[in-house]
Amino acid sequence: MSVAATPPAIGSFSLPRSLRRRPRFRMAVRSSAVPVDSILTKLKHECATPLPVLRRVADAMAADMRAGLAVDGGSDLKMILSYVDSLPTGNEKGLFYALDLGGTNFRVLRVQLGGKEERVIDTEFEQVSIPQDLMFGTSEELFDFIASRLATFAQKEGGKFHLPPGRKKEIGFTFSFPVRQTSIDSGILIKWTKGFAVSGTAGRDVVACLNDAMERQGLDMRVSALVNDTVGTLAGARYWDDDVMVAVILGTGTNACYIERKDSIPKLQGHVSASGRTIINTEWGAFSNGLPLTVFDREMDAASINPGEQIFEKTISGMYLGEIVRRVLLKMAEDGALFGSSIPEKLSMPFVLRTPDLSAMQQDNSDDLQAVGSVLYDIAGVESNLNARKIVVEVCDTIAKRGGRLAGAGIVGILQKMEEDSKGLIFGKRTVVAMDGGLYERYPQYRRYLKDAVTELLGLEMSKNVVIEHSKDGSGIGAALLAAANSKYEHSF
Ligand code: ADP
Ligand code: MG
């Protein structure tokens, strides 16, 4: 297709009057020094993920997993022990709670489990947003706030929810920040991320912080399990389906966990447990080997708060895909006059274009790509003609395709590693990969690319046994199930 940039056809799409402000322009550009098509061709070439690249990534993922299991610090992948040794069976019974703290909201959940026959008798949940000032306050203030909301929620027990007399309420705590887990119910916060800057928690046991706050509130509750969100997702999905072996989160960030044999974990040395298996939290966002990267990725990384870290996450997850596309479009505007002879200031603002915008643009099936035009105008302040819009969609597709296909290669890397250790464990039978997260859920093209890559790598026959399944919000119930499995009371399962 010819993609020579032409001046924008102003007024080729209609906007509400209120939006018809003139955008502010930053600079005039040199006249099409580099044609837009050559920038696009180069981008597609550098982002390409043909089968040999996918294979290289899958192999490197498997090798890095092994190295991380051998010794702490042995690879980019931390391969963190979850201390989850017993998986939900479906026999769990009783009333349990879950608390999910992972971003700007926290969620509390109550579930009455009825065993194999009745399963989930009832659930209730509540979502509370965390006031901004608490994200910058002290540890006590934050945990007191959480405990007070939890207390209000716990008071409203009734209906189908019953706790036997004399028992403390037990809770599974999903905490999606980097933690060095020290047992199933304790873990040291390494650092806050995602905009949290709470003083006095780093280096402390987050379970103790919550237990202390609950005690200050006079709340008769204890944390029985501290759970990473991927681990919660795996447990939640496994409750319904014994074939679930892997869980992957693709949302703002990304991570994966899977069920590992204890005798395949050399760094475990001497840990004994009844079960021969455990869940390993790979922290695969830190993976970096063999990825096809561009100057746009390298510049985004250099400008980030953690340069050189989380490279896989920066290539495939929701927080970054929009920003990579923005950087490409800015280059096309500056060097190739994609949007005409001047560049709107907004396009120079980091993170102004978000991944949901890419997805919205890719769903536009209209002849004149009107929705693409609106997104570009509303978000980046650019007026675009049809040609420019087509190019923008191609850029979105290139970046989403690379991300989805690399995520698929990562999944195959995990399956491959498991199969190498136990022949027939994965590929000889039905195996389920439980997926969750807003990116996977709401970007259909990305999801399709991910599945295509898995099929290409495994071949049509073998890939029929691998079921990639959306497990929506499984992590909440998963945490409650792990609280049940690690209850300090006698239980009948
Ligand atoms: P989190 O990962 O923060 O726990 P979610 O799993 O809900 O939360 O994922 C939210 C992320 O998913 C957003 O940051 C965004 O990157 C991505 N996302 C949300 N909606 C869409 C969409 N429509 N298309 C593509 N990505 C989306
Ligand atoms: Mg989440």
Automatic annotation (TrEMBL):
<keyword id="KW-0324">Glycolysis</keyword>
<dbReference type="GO" id="GO:0005524">
    <property type="term" value="F:ATP binding"/>
</dbReference>
<dbReference type="InterPro" id="IPR019807">
    <property type="entry name" value="Hexokinase_BS"/>
</dbReference>
<feature type="domain" description="Hexokinase N-terminal">
    <location>
        <begin position="40"/>
        <end position="239"/>
    </location>
</feature>
<keyword id="KW-0067">ATP-binding</keyword>
<dbReference type="GO" id="GO:0005741">
    <property type="term" value="C:mitochondrial outer membrane"/>
</dbReference>
<comment type="pathway">
    <text>Carbohydrate degradation; glycolysis; D-glyceraldehyde 3-phosphate and glycerone phosphate from D-glucose: step 1/4.</text>
</comment>
<keyword id="KW-0418">Kinase</keyword>
<dbReference type="GO" id="GO:0006096">
    <property type="term" value="P:glycolytic process"/>
</dbReference>
<dbReference type="GO" id="GO:0008865">
    <property type="term" value="F:fructokinase activity"/>
</dbReference>
<feature type="domain" description="Hexokinase C-terminal">
    <location>
        <begin position="246"/>
        <end position="484"/>
    </location>
</feature>
<keyword id="KW-0472">Membrane</keyword>
<keyword id="KW-0496">Mitochondrion</keyword>
<protein>
    <recommendedName>
        <fullName>Phosphotransferase</fullName>
        <ecNumber>2.7.1.-</ecNumber>
    </recommendedName>
</protein>
<dbReference type="InterPro" id="IPR043129">
    <property type="entry name" value="ATPase_NBD"/>
</dbReference>
<dbReference type="GO" id="GO:0004340">
    <property type="term" value="F:glucokinase activity"/>
</dbReference>
<dbReference type="Pfam" id="PF03727">
    <property type="entry name" value="Hexokinase_2"/>
</dbReference>
<dbReference type="InterPro" id="IPR001312">
    <property type="entry name" value="Hexokinase"/>
</dbReference>
<dbReference type="Pfam" id="PF00349">
    <property type="entry name" value="Hexokinase_1"/>
</dbReference>
<dbReference type="GO" id="GO:0001678">
    <property type="term" value="P:intracellular glucose homeostasis"/>
</dbReference>
<keyword id="KW-0547">Nucleotide-binding</keyword>
<dbReference type="InterPro" id="IPR022673">
    <property type="entry name" value="Hexokinase_C"/>
</dbReference>
<dbReference type="GO" id="GO:0005536">
    <property type="term" value="F:D-glucose binding"/>
</dbReference>
<comment type="similarity">
    <text>Belongs to the hexokinase family.</text>
</comment>
<comment type="pathway">
    <text>Carbohydrate metabolism; hexose metabolism.</text>
</comment>
<dbReference type="GO" id="GO:0006006">
    <property type="term" value="P:glucose metabolic process"/>
</dbReference>
<keyword id="KW-0808">Transferase</keyword>
<dbReference type="GO" id="GO:0005829">
    <property type="term" value="C:cytosol"/>
</dbReference>
<dbReference type="InterPro" id="IPR022672">
    <property type="entry name" value="Hexokinase_N"/>
</dbReference>
<keyword id="KW-1000">Mitochondrion outer membrane</keyword>
